[in-house]
Amino acid sequence: MTETPPITATGLSIRNITKSFGPVRVLEGIDLDIRPGECVAVLGENGAGKSTLSAIIAGVIPPSSGEMTWNGAPYAPRSPAEALSHGIGLIHQEMRLLPELSIAENVFVGRLLMKNGRIDRREMNRRAEVQLRRLGLDIPATTKVKALRVAAQQQVEIAKALTLEASLLIFDEPTAALGGEETDRLFEQIDRLKAEGVSSVYISHRLEEIARVADRIAVLRDGALVAVHDTADVPVRQLVEEMVGRSVERLFPDIPAPTGPEVLAVDGLTGAQNDFRDISFSVRAGEIFGIAGIVGAGRTELVRAIAGIDPLAAGTVRLAGEAVTLTSPRDALDAGIVMVPEDRKGQGLLLGMPIADNVAVGNFDLVGNAGWVRPSQTRAFGAQAIDSMGVKGTPEQLVGRLSGGNQQKVIIAKWLARSPRLVIMDEPTRGVDVGARAQIYEAIAELAQAGMAVIVVSSDLDEVIGLSHRVMVLSRGESRGILERGEATHVAIMERATT
């Protein structure tokens, strides 16, 4: 029997913490210390208990049993506000911003700065902009959040936490929507906080980040703490095997070279907002074409235009050699183009509806007969989609209660039901654990093997390199070249992405 370590006098000590929701136990006897000025990475698959542990520390939910101390004194927060009063704050994985309010108002919501009985908007704007600039976001704090892209919204969420002047910050997937440059700025900020004695708990599915930001690593599996490493210099393969409880031979599947005809050809594409300019490339049947570049390079804007979501100012799109005009997503669907968006919760799913209904929406022409759709048909259609992608759920289950990986599988299954010619995936594994990520990679490879053309946009260089036959690199809205599989290295991509 492992002896429980003594409670530390400073920092956060967690002892024998358990948590059950009804008959389901999601945390089992967790012992962990977070010392002043250190960053502890907490790793694990979706459902391993990472977010539950974070929620307990941050006062969102109470533990079922166990105890915590903070700087030697008993610590049992009954609310996030009480945790904040102790100097402990949580940066949520899912952004909780108010779109109609400004950046500054979101940063200081619930704790507005006052002067002479009035809200001091000038000081709020000033303080918010200081934190935004530290994170590399140089925009006015008066800008409404709804006008920001996903990456910029994530930076606002981080800036919000940094203004708390907390002693311990919990980062839950903070870089899920960020590119390399934004991630580096966040790490620099975490380094500054560590030098000031601020502790942090860092949760991420991007294992390559861990050695850069963490001092120690804790690994959870099925609610139990299975490993604690006193260094972050741990091989990724070892961490993966600890997380999933089995040997992982390969994360990326073998992908044969494409032999099919050209499916998509774009020439001189320029966006109506000038987000991208004079872009030309082609994709063959059976090919996975990667698009890389830092956030703001125009990657998402480009594929949204190809999918008929955003307008074009110039250029032509050809499918199987024939020019097409795509002025709406419906046009793209009818032409055989489908897109899995980067923001699956905001743009890809109806979280309050069952899996079957989510799969049916947009596919009613396939589900019903003569314009009529019966519930039994929807359930059967959903069941078939669930089976095709290995979704862990039932047709009646609310999609909002699925893990991130299973939600992503639902979107993919929804569009594959249309047997498309071109599948566009924007950040296909954002916020997805390593086990589900490998399954999604297998699914992408199977699409190519079935003769579909696939475009993958990703901020994860390992992902875009491991999956793609060719990689186009964008920088500041322009193409910096297309690299063949053997040429697409981290160095070659970043050299082009940063020019």
UniProtKB/TrEMBL annotation:
Keywords of this protein's UniProt record, alphabetized? ATP-binding, Cell membrane, Membrane, Nucleotide-binding, Repeat, Sugar transport, Translocase, Transport
Assigned GO CC terms: plasma membrane
ABC transporter domain ranges (all copies) = 12-247, 261-495
Q: Where are the transmembrane segments?
A: none
Q: What is its membrane topology?
A: Peripheral membrane protein
| InterPro entries according to UniProt | AAA+_ATPase, ABC_carbohydrate_import_ATPase, ABC_transporter-like_ATP-bd, ABC_transporter-like_CS, P-loop_NTPase
Q: Which SMART domains match?
A: AAA
Q: Where is this chain's protein located in or outside the cell?
A: Cell membrane
- Key word Zinc present in the record? no
Where's it mainly located? membrane
Quote one Gene Ontology molecular function term.
Answer: ATP binding
Q: Which PANTHER family match?
A: CARBOHYDRATE TRANSPORT ATP-BINDING PROTEIN MG119-RELATED (PTHR43790), GALACTOFURANOSE TRANSPORTER ATP-BINDING PROTEIN YTFR (PTHR43790:SF9)
Which family would the database say this protein is a member of?
Belongs to the ABC transporter superfamily.
User: What name is this protein filed under?
Assistant: Sugar ABC transporter ATP-binding protein
Species of provenance: Acuticoccus mangrovi
